[in-house]
C-alpha cells in the first residue's frame, strides 16, 4: 500500500511541477514582496513559516525513527543534513524575520502539503527501500557524497548569508525599499533562492535518491518563476542601471 503510494507520487509530482512552473509565471504567490489581500485570510508571517515548514522536519523524523535502514551510517548522515536544514527553516529563520508582513493561509496550507509529500518521498526512499548494499560505509567516501556535501554546505552558507543581507537592508523603522548587492546578490537578484536550490542539488547528488531529484525539480519549478518576477520588480523599481547584468536565479545562466 505504502509502496504503491510512493510509486504513484513519484510519477505525479514531476508532472505537477511542470504545471506549477508554468502557472507561477502568470500568478505570483501573494507573500513576501508580492503580498496582497487577494489571496484571502492571512496570518502573521512568522507563524505561517513555522506551520508551513515544521511538517517536513517532523515527518522526516517519524520516517527515520520507524525506518528499516535508519542507522546505516550513510542514511544517518542524510537524515541529519535534512533535519539541519528544516530545523533552521522551521524554528530559526521565522524568528529572525523583521516587520509585520502576512502570509495567506491558502499558501501556507499548500506549503504544508508539499512539505509532507516531499519528506515522505525522501524518507521512504532512504529508510525503507532496501539500500543496505548501496549505502554502505564506503558511500561516505564516494565522489557522489563528497561532491554533494560540498554543494549542500555551500548552498546552505549562501542561503543563510543572503537571508542575513535581506534582513539588514534597512535600519529599524525605515520602510523604504533597498536593492541587495552584497554576497551572491552581486550575481543574482534572488541569491537566497540560489543557495536553497544549490543545497537540494547537493543533497540529491550525495544521496543519489530519485526522490531527492524530484525535489530538485520541484524546488526549481517553485523558485525560478518567483525569482524571475522579483528581478522584474527590481528593474521596475530601481532601473536597469542598478540591477545591471545580474541574472535572476543562477549566476551567468538564468
Brief overview:
The mean pLDDT is 93. Helices cover 65% and strands 2% of the residues.
Account of the protein in words:
The chain is mainly alpha-helical. The chain has eight helices and two strands. Helix 1 packs parallel to helix 7 (210-238). The radius of gyration is 19 Å and the shape is globular. The model has no long low-confidence stretch (mean pLDDT 93).
The number of helical runs is 8
Largest sheet: 2 strands, antiparallel
Q: Structural class, please?
A: mainly alpha
Number of strands: 2
Query: Strand content of the residues, in percent?
Result: under 5%
Strand line-up across the major sheet: 1-2
Gyration radius over CA: 19 Å
Share of helix, binned: 55-70%
Span between termini = 41 Å
Mean pLDDT, to the nearest integer, reads 93
Order of helices and strands: HEHHEHHHHH
Q: What ranges have pLDDT less than 50 throughout 5 or more consecutive residues?
A: none
3D shape:
globular
List the topology elements.
Elements: H1 2-23, E1 42-44, H2 45-65, H3 73-96, E2 102-104, H4 105-127, H5 143-167, H6 191-207, H7 210-238, H8 240-243
Antiparallel strand pairs: 1-2
Helix pairs in contact: 1-7, 2-3, 2-4, 4-7, 5-6, 6-7
List keywords for this structure.
254 residues, single chain, two-stranded antiparallel ribbon
